[in-house]
Amino acid sequence: MGKVLVIGAGGVGNVAVKKCAQIPEVFDEIMVASRSIEKCEKIKKETKTKIPMRTAKVDADNVKETASLISKFEPEVVINLALPYQDLTIMDACLETGTHYIDTANYEPREEAKFSYSWQWPYDPKFKKAGKMALLGCGFDPGVSNIFCAYAQKHLFDEIKNIDIVDCNAGSHGHPFATNFNPEINIREITQKGKYWEKGKWKEIEPMSMSFDFDYPVAGPKKSYLLFHEELESLVKNIRGLERIRFWMTFSQNYITHLNVIQNLGLNRIDEIEFEGKKIVPLKFLKALLPDPSSLGATYTGKTVIGCVLDGTKNGKRIRKFIYNVCDHAEVYKEVQSQAVSYTAGVPPVIGAMMIMKGLWKGKGVFNVEQLNPDPFMEELNRRGLPWQTVDFKGKLPEG
Ligand code: NDP
């Protein structure tokens, strides 16, 4: 039992707070802190729980301010659900106060759309010295996708040779164009070059230039595009014998048409431009125009399907398995007034906090989730609204 501090009161933070509030046997006090206090107050108001809840205003870009909040509240764990820009400052604040740290997205500098663990992995000696755990990328993908791979490595395969992570949102929110999580981060991610890993080398392709139809359970065949995604960077290190790993995500033709227009007009630019005597960043301006992802839930219908296709050997025979979760937008709205993309990202860091607070995941230093025992986490996924299934995979995948 202990206290938990959630930083960030957006789509994912809303889910995490409401999920913590359902688990009084682990969390005995919850604080939600963010840049805009009104969003924290709204979440608190909507949360039905016996657990005491507090809210606070914090600028998580400021280490001193964040550390001061942490030392006043004294949580066991800080769950960082602000933006990737705040990862390092929140990690520094956790080190200063001797607190465990969890996030769902790796650090990215504001001025360059480049997400990588290269900034956070070097914190390992510092967290070791502090005797605390920093759990990186504990959302759904990265997060559960890594844990599916760790589970497969532990229980299903002697050796995994190929992994294809597939992510499908077969939902409909009724807006002409909206992103399912923070628009700035989302558009920065998908307009980068695609990248995958094969036979010990990274291979780069033009953005959205490789796609195929994957036949998703429940959702059916959907065009899926190869993207670089952050879990690839850690899984190549932590899955033995791996020869190839790729990540695929579905986008509708409507989404791609909007994205092309955004890019053609330069609305995805992250450098400052001069507009009527003021400096503005076009992508931030675009974010202000787009629907807030946390508001999409009310009208969202359909499902997300996210999973890992694993290809390898067991007892000398080639086997292929598909481990996946299906999440329903409308069901999620009933439970936590959200949508399935925020839900699939917001529940896993709560389970991560439970793993640390119950002593099921122990360790000092910086960890990616696949380095820890997948079994208790997999059990909690089934209990906490993200049930998973494993089936033999009989479908087709593009050759390398
Ligand atoms: P939102 O933009 O909806 O929420 C971000 C929140 O962080 C907002 O409340 C925002 O405050 C707050 N914030 C931003 N800057 C600061 C700051 N300096 N100090 C304090 N609070 C701050 O984003 P999402 O909820 O959609 O995403 C949250 C995180 O989850 C992102 O890092 C995203 O990449 C990650 N994610 C991970 C996924 C996974 O599966 N691994 C999937 C989806 C998302 P304000 O309201 O004032 O702007």
Mean pLDDT: 96
Q: Which ligands accompany this protein?
A: NADPH dihydro-nicotinamide-adenine-dinucleotide phosphate
Structural class comes to alpha/beta
User: Helical amount among residues, as a percent range?
Assistant: 25-40%
Compute the separation of the termini in Å: 48 Å
General shape:
globular
Summarize this, please?
The protein is α/β, with parallel strands linked by helices. It is 34% helix and 29% strand. It contains 13 helices and 18 strands.
How would you describe this structure to a colleague?
- The protein is α/β, with parallel strands linked by helices and 400 residues long.
- It is built from 13 helices and 18 strands.
- Strands 7, 8, 9, 10, 11, 12, 15, 16 and 18 form a 9-stranded mixed sheet that branches.
- Helix 2 links the parallel strand 2 and strand 3 (53-57).
- The chain is globular and about 55 Å long.
- The model has no long low-confidence stretch (mean pLDDT 96).
- The structure holds NADPH dihydro-nicotinamide-adenine-dinucleotide phosphate (NDP).
- NADPH dihydro-nicotinamide-adenine-dinucleotide phosphate binds next to helix 1.
What are the salient characteristics of this protein?
globular; binds NADPH dihydro-nicotinamide-adenine-dinucleotide phosphate; alpha/beta; nine-stranded mixed β-sheet; 400 residues; seven-stranded parallel β-sheet
Write the layout of secondary structure elements.
Blueprint: E1 2-7, H1 11-20, E2 27-34, H2 37-46, E3 53-57, H3 63-73, E4 77-80, H4 87-97, E5 100-103, H5 124-130, E6 133-136, H6 144-156, E7 159-172, H7 183-190, E8 194-198, E9 201-205, E10 211-216, E11 220-227, H8 231-238, E12 244-250, H9 253-265, E13 273-275, E14 278-280, H10 282-289, E15 301-314, E16 317-328, H11 329-336, H12 340-357, E17 365-368, H13 374-383, E18 388-392
Parallel strand pairs: 1-2, 1-4, 2-3, 4-5, 5-6, 6-17, 7-12
Antiparallel strand pairs: 7-15, 8-9, 8-12, 10-11, 11-12, 13-14, 15-16, 16-18
Helix pairs in contact: 1-12, 3-4, 6-13, 12-13
